[in-house]
Structures are given as structure tokens and as C-alpha cells.
Amino acid sequence: MSKSTRERIKANKRRERTRNAAIGAAIAVSAVAGIAWLANQVREREGGEFVPIPQVQAVQELEDVSHVAERTDPGPYNSDPPTSGRMYAAQTFAGFKDEEDLESFGEFPEGFLVHSLEHGYVIFWYNCDVLSAAECEDMKDEIERVMGRVGDFKVIAFPWTSIQEPVVMTSWGRMLRFDEFDAEIAEQYVRNFRGQAPEPGAP
């Protein structure tokens, strides 16, 4: 191989390294910008001021927040419903989940839901077993209206029959139990605690 050929090869490799470094830097900047944008969206959507809610319970955050294999039991947790702990690698996204949706989540839906909490979601865990059919429908309608007022952003409603109350709301490390659902307090809970989690910038 001639000297000029070797020099051209070296020059090409230098250019390729420079180009790859530039591409890598651009990707990194885009990722940071994307996370910052998501976090800013959370802040902008909250609006208003923090209003203390005396009934909110602080729940000790579990140290083990590792990912476990889907379809395995991610527990035990230190509260029902959970507010932190082990989780699946996948999460549940915003929306109202009905009883007919349960089958798609498998035996341990909490594995997906705790991951959502880690990303700053607020969850309405509702139990229609303690209500009449009419009361259940009214409550679901109220929850959906609250979710709509907060932009349907990072809020989930999920059926959960192991609780004694008609609704329990959770965010990361916090819980609010309702013996009777109060839409105004529920909305303020979302505005206070949505995004207050270890990974608020994640989707």
C-alpha cells in the first residue's frame, strides 16, 4: 500500500471519528432537551399553588425499586395500594382502566402501575365492590371529570378491590384515602403531587 493511500485511509478514519462524535453529541443533547421538555410540561400543566391536604399520608419509600420479570410477583409492598417498590420494566400509561381491561394486565398489574408512579403519575385506585351499581357509575364519571380537568396527563384510574374505600389516590410515597370521593380534593392532590417522583421527566 502506498504512502498516499495510507494517508487517505487515515484521513477518512479521522473524518469518520469526528462525524460519529458529532452525531453522538447531537443525540445526547436531544435526549437531555427531551427530558427537560417533559419535566417542563409537568410544571406548566400543574399551574396554581400547592395547597396542603391534611388527609394525605406519607408512606415510607421502599429502597428496592429494581425491575423484576413480568408475570412474577413484584411485592411485597408496604401499603395497599402500593406507592413505591419493585416494578416491571414496562409501565401503564394515562387513561381510565375498566374492569374489562384487567385481563390484559395479568395477575400482578401493580408491577406496571408502580413503574408509572416512579415516572410521576397519580393513580386513582377505585373499588366498585363497596358501592351500588349507580353509585359506581357516578363515581367513575366524577373521576373522569377530574382527569379531564387536569389535562388527562399522567393520571390513571384503575380498579382495585382489595381496598376498603371506594377510592384511594397514590403518587410516589404518598396516599390519600376517600371514604366518600371529593372531586375538588382529588384535583388538588393531582396538582400537588403529579411529577413528584424519582423520574418525573420520563413519559
Task: Give your account of this protein's structure.
The chain is an alpha/beta fold. It has a six-stranded mixed beta sheet. The chain starts with a helix and ends in a 10-residue tail after the last helix. Helix 3 (133-149) crosses helix 4. The protein has helices spanning 3-46, 110-118, 133-149, 183-193, and strands spanning 57-58, 95-96, 122-126, 155-159, 167-171, 174-178. It has a domain at 57-193: Glutaredoxin (3-Layer(aba) Sandwich). Helix 3 links the parallel strand 3 and strand 4.
Q: List the strand order in the largest sheet.
A: 1-6-5-3-4-2
CATH top level assignment of the domain at 57-193: Alpha Beta
- The best one-word shape is globular
Rg? 23 Å
Helicity, in percent? 25-40%
In brief:
The chain is an alpha/beta fold and 203 residues long.
List keywords for this structure.
globular, 203 residues, alpha/beta
Helix and strand arrangement:
Layout lengths: L2 H44 L10 E2 L36 E2 L13 H9 L3 E5 L6 H17 L5 E5 L7 E5 L2 E5 L4 H11 L10
Helix pairs in contact: 3-4
